[in-house]
Amino acid sequence: xxxxxxxxxxxxxxxxxxxxxxxxxxxxxxxxxxxxxxxxxxxxxxxxxxxxxxxxxxxxxxxxxxxxxxxxxxxxxxxxxxxxxxxxxxxxxxxxxxxxxxxxxxxxxxxxxxxxx
Length: 117
Prior knowledge:
Elements lengths: L2 E5 L2 E3 L5 E8 L5 E9 L6 E7 L4 E3 L7 E6 L4 E6 L8 E9 L5 E3 L3 E5 L2
Parallel strand pairs: 2-11
Antiparallel strand pairs: 1-3, 3-8, 4-5, 4-9, 5-6, 7-8, 9-10, 9-11
């Protein structure tokens, strides 16, 4: 069974940066879709960034110009570089991946990002 593990979250001041990482273990297949979601207190989970097999990306309007998603699809690694962080970016961030040969989306456990002075 494939498991996803996120890391890199923490406390940062407004205007600071963090780099989140997600690694998948137990998969014999390359990823075809990788994404980051986040969920803030009292809010529904939202899609933050997506990167597809062809390298195309999409971002939530709220993070455009500040966040960058990248990864190694063959090794099932995905990253989220977060710059110019704002208090409203505070949330639990979740990694998501889909692999060749399966229609099932896999989720990580989440990593907390807190932006505060």
